[in-house]
Amino acid sequence: MPKKKSPDLQVDLFDAEPDSNMYEYKARLDHLKDQLLKFGLTANQAKVYIFLGKYGPKSAPDVFRTLGLPRTETYFILNTLQNQGIVTAELTSPQKFSAIPVGKAILTLVNTQKEKLHDLASLEGELTQLWDDIPAFAVETSETKTEKIQMISGSAPINSKINEMIKNAREKILIFGTEKDLSRFYHVDILEELYDKIIDKKIIISPSQTLPRILEEFDKKTIKIMPQSQEDNQCFIVKDNDEILFFLRNSVHPSHTVFALWAESKALISTLQNLFEYSWNNSEVCY
Length: 287
What we know:
By secondary structure, the protein is an alpha+beta fold. Helix content is 44%, strand content 16%. The strands form two sheets. The chain has an eight-stranded mixed beta sheet with strand order 4-10-9-8-5-6-7-11, with helices on both faces. Strands 1-3-2 form a three-stranded antiparallel beta sheet. It starts with 22 loop residues before the first helix and ends with a strand.
């Protein structure tokens, strides 16, 4: 049974009725809560943080009565938020809790995520060694080897896959994309990785009228533009003769909604190579 709210604390930011004074802020609060989830908070942790931030110092009973949360969960959330450094406790009786300013809270949460990533990255060598110490019991032969395909969602894993393709390339990398696609690659150091790679590399920018500044250091002979193209949703990458990555939703969409197909399919590789070569022959050189 849900907890009853205290008569003197009836205002609930997240359950405001259409005829209440708080209702006009409900959509903004829900959006704010959803954004905080991206920084590692749970839905209830975000609600508690927002409540403390907007209503000032409150005791634990104030929090669970107003937000209708279970008593034990509320104490656990308050303790967690304190450990994360975004909520402070006052030396009062009863004890009250306060939220630090949202700007500082975001920086604190970001630094926490960075530390977690650093700790995970430091385990790479240990986990790789543990993995290698365990014998493999499946043997891949010419009869069992198959072409692989993978659907990848979100800019972070897609960028990671592209970097992996460039690092492992031995012969060539072909990139077909828009200026916005290449701009995103530039800001996550994909173009820097490609620039330093001593292989055959070609880039087609479509549509475009001029060479983007982010590519000025590249050899102009390796870049062409297609000013006549009316499409701005095409982007794909070919690595050697064994991998392709094709964006089904590219940079015309928000970064967290981009979607790509990675494959080792010989048919897809051949098709995209032919498309690239045809486009290359019908594109303009950069001066």
